[in-house]
Specification:
four-stranded mixed β-sheet, globular, Rossmann fold, alpha/beta
Length: 209
Amino acid sequence: MDKNRVKRNELLAQTVIKGLASRNMTGYYAATKEDALAKALELIPEGSTVTQGGCMSSFEIGLIDVLKTDKYNFIDRDAAEDKRAAMLAAYDADVFLASANAITSDGVLVNIDGNSNRVSSIAYGPRKVVFIVSMKKICSDVDAAMKRARNVAAVANAQRFGIETPCTKTGTCMNCKSPDTICCQFLITRYSRHTGRIHVILVGEDVGF
């Protein structure tokens, strides 16, 4: 990565981390995927019950491969016969993994969900939520974060799922009411009431959507 971008990421990450702290959330900066993996494992004690809500970033840093070992109790909803039961089990998990569709420079997290299991688990339930968020997702304010979530993250995810929504054909949000829409619930996390619950790992390398 260009050295100027590396420096910019380091400085901007510190601004976001200060913003998160002001909102009773804890932030960390990991320059590389390897650093992000190491930090995530610091936050997840061995023996923990862990699950996630469709977080591609956790796959891309290699975290899921580690969690599938016998050192952890990983609830794999993708492999579960009863997916609803697996998703409901997340509410009593020790650790829930997530990413953010966007995050503001002062630490507000923005997420969109279809089934809503992901945003509901972020809001309440699991004892700890660990976000893995690429620096590319940082936006100037909530309006910009909402635009990114709808026009970048949601479009890419709809295309990944192979669903028939207008955005998969136009490449931008059409504010649709399609039966296949994944933009059913919007969650803005501006403060955590519970100290030590929400942790955000900002990753200098490109991960997620």
